[in-house]
């Protein structure tokens, strides 16, 4: 327990990075009278684990020099506050790709299965981009008489429901012997948790970087931070619609290559992050057992809810589409053959 963990980037630095990336993510300017080519949009978020999305956009890796933006589709990044919002944008067909933690993905898939008897396997996971075992924290105010995790019982806990923070809290509460009904969970937008805690609307906040920093800065020496290290791990998933993965291999392959280049750039040039690289983040494109296991864990967690208690739990493998990564980097696909078919060569899209 500490008021501030060493090495955590300041919120101001992450905001600067986000603004830089958003500015540089734009598409090429079309010539007067020219027909604007279709766009493919990737929904990202400010979480440090999503840095490869911002770096790839900033450096043009999704639209390399050999790509003629006057006649071919442009890949553009749009920013959302959370992976949950990004995934919802994918479901709403506002974007073609999204980055999200397994929790909102699993909830979206399972909810569609329950409400419409639709297996929902038109939404597929292409790869895991990031893995972290220390991204979530419980932050509270010492003046509320909270010095130990068990003292959170009977309190109001602010978080974004149906996100990785929600699952992380359940694991945290279970580890510390708190019953699920011993606290009141308050659903709040991620950007309002700091003010909610300061105004006394909640007694503690469950959040992740870069949103932890504004809260601890506001509370100063009165900030109490409980770590969730080893209690919860996050796979950051690249998700799309199956029709895109199958019909536009040129686009999916370009997206994956963009991520591979961005991650290589981050490790070769740590200064690209504008802050020391976090020790709790591993950027690595892969599609393997960790993704299968993580998605299966989410389904089991959701089964505790009344709305899913009698639901048939689908097999996680049906939501994995290994074809694109098998073409781009086959050694990064670690799945049994019965889950995926050999990749076919990519052909140019229409």
TrEMBL record:
The UniProt keyword set, sorted, is: Signal
SUPFAM superfamilies for the chain: Periplasmic binding protein-like II
Signal peptide stretch: 1-30
- Domain (SsuA/THI5-like) spans 109-272
Q: Taxonomically, which superkingdom? A: Bacteria
- A Pfam family in this protein? NMT1
Keyword Signal listed? The answer is yes
Q: Could you tell me what this protein is called?
A: SsuA/THI5-like domain-containing protein
């Amino acid at each position: 327990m500490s008021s501030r963990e060493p090495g955590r980037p300041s919120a101001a630095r992450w905001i600067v990075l986000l603004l830089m990336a958003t500015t540089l993510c734009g598409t090429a300017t079309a010539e007067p009278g020219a027909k604007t080519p279709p766009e493919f949009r990737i929904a990202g978020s400010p979480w440090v684990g999503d840095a490869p999305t911002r770096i790839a956009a900033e450096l043009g890796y999704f639209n390399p020099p050999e790509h003629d933006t006057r006649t071919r589709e442009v890949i553009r990044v749009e920013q959302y506050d959370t992976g949950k919002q990004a995934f919802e944008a994918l479901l709403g067909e506002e974007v073609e790709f999204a980055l999200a933690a397994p929790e909102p993905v699993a909830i979206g898939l399972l909810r569609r299965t329950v409400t419409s008897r639709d297996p929902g396997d038109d939404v597929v996971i292409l790869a895991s981009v990031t893995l972290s075992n220390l991204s979530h924290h419980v932050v509270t105010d010492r003046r509320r008489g909270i010095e130990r995790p068990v003292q959170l019982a009977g309190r109001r806990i602010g978080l974004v429901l149906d996100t990785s923070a929600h699952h992380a809290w359940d694991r945290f509460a279970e580890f510390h012997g708190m019953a699920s009904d011993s606290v009141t969970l308050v659903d709040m937008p991620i950007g309002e948790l700091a003010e909610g805690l300061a105004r006394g609307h909640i007694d503690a906040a469950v959040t992740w970087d870069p949103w932890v920093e504004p809260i601890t800065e506001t509370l100063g020496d009165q900030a109490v931070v409980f770590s969730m290290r080893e209690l919860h791990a996050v796979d950051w998933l690249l998700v799309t619609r199956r029709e895109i993965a199958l019909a536009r291999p040129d686009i999916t392959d370009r997206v994956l290559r963009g991520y591979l280049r961005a991650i290589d750039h981050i490790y070769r040039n740590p200064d690209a992050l504008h802050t020391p690289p976090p020790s709790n983040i591993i950027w690595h494109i892969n599609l393997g057992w960790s993704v299968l296991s993580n998605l299966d864990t989410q389904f089991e967690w959701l089964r505790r809810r009344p709305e899913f208690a009698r639901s048939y739990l689908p097999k996680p493998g049906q939501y994995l589409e290994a074809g694109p990564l098998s073409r781009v980097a086959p050694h990064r696909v670690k799945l049994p053959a019965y889950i995926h078919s050999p990749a076919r060569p990519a052909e140019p899209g229409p």
